[in-house]
Amino acid sequence: MKTRLNIDNFSIGQLKNIGNTSLVDLSSLSQNSTVRIYAKLEGENPTGSIKDRVAKCLIFDAEKEGKITPGQTIIEPTSGNTGIGLAMISKIKGYKMIAVMPDSVSQERVSLLKSFGAEIIFSDGKEGTNGSIKLAQKISSENPEYFMPFQYGNQASIKAHYYTTGLEIAKQMPDITHFVAGLGTGGTLMGVGKRLKEINDSIKIIATAPHPDDVVQGLRSIEHGYIPPILDLDKLDGRIMVEAEESFFWTKKVMETHGLFVGVSSGATLATCVKMSKRLDNANIVTIFADGGWKYLSSGIYEKDFSEIANDIDGKVWW
């Protein structure tokens, strides 16, 4: 069985630096001395997020299958990170890129997309990423010459993590007992989960999700009615809800205790790990810190108390 993708033709520029991210020990934040917590720092990827892995695999598969050729236009619905990864790779490999995203994303994401030469089409922020999906599908149907990878329904989103992230975690933490990731497209949970379950079926795969009425946007609440086609809920061992306030708290806490500048979805997954540590014994929990915090600086979340920004975060995209 193959253990990695044959992506040698993706070794130019920053593409060779995608993946192989660090795993750090955060066990001092555990509520039980027999439960250890580790986080994989995906902000180390070239554009600062785990979605570089997905973008690389989406384009690699499309090229391999003859679905795109240099000069062609790629269009993709995104909350920002996948779009940025696609834009970076498109710039290097000679594709045009259109990102369809909510108008509630941070200014840093918009600026970075434009820096990589991407065109941006905004959807209604009140509709979240679901609105971006609908709009991108409409535009794509009206422009059949465009190619839409569609991360939410593309098996490449799973393969990226099965062949890279999952293997890396297995090597870095052979004694892992629980894996925690945010519930977004489902690619990370499905891909890493598949790899880890093949190694040891007793490893538990846990999703972090926002409360249905809360605002950790980017983390997907399935109660909102859209389940990505690649997400198989039966393959999850659990789903733990987090509130926005605790997500912000742990985002700032890990910066204070460990000097890690991460995005809010990382605070959400860390909150999940801390909750789990209270009811587990003799466990090794590995979670994903999906991106760095620098794309969210304009939000003020790192300098203000939650009470000061609570009214400003509704509808914002944090992943």
Task: Please explain how this structure is put together.
The protein is of the alpha/beta class and 319 residues long. The chain folds into 2 domains: 8-45 and 154-309, Rossmann fold (3-Layer(aba) Sandwich); 51-142, 3-Layer(aba) Sandwich (Rossmann fold). It has 9 helices and 9 strands. The chain has helices at 51-64, 81-93, 107-115, 128-142, 156-172, 187-199, 244-258, 264-277, 306-309; strands spanning 23-25, 35-41, 73-77, 96-102, 119-123, 178-182, 204-210, 238-242, 283-289. The protein has a 6-stranded mixed beta sheet with strand order 1-2-9-6-7-8. Helix 1 crosses helix 2, helix 5 packs across helix 6 and helix 7 packs across helix 8. The protein is globular, with a radius of gyration of 18 Å.
Provide a compact summary of the structure.
The chain has 319 residues and is an alpha/beta fold.
Q: How would you sum up the global shape?
A: globular
Distance between the termini: 33 Å
Q: What percentage of residues falls in helices of 4 or more residues? A: 25-40%
> In angstroms, what is the radius of gyration?
18 Å
Mean pLDDT: 90
The helix/strand class is: alpha/beta
What's the main sheet like? 6 strands, mixed
The top level CATH class name of the largest domain: Alpha Beta
What is the H-and-E element order?
A: EEHEHEHEHHEHEEHHEH
Spatial strand order of the main sheet: 1-2-9-6-7-8
Which architecture of the largest domain would the CATH scheme give at its second level? 3-Layer(aba) Sandwich
Q: Which fold name is given in CATH as the topology of the largest domain?
A: Rossmann fold
Q: Could you say how many structural domains there are in total?
A: 2
Number of extended strands? 9
Unreliable sequence segments: 1-8, 213-218
Number of helical elements: 9
Strand content: 15-25%
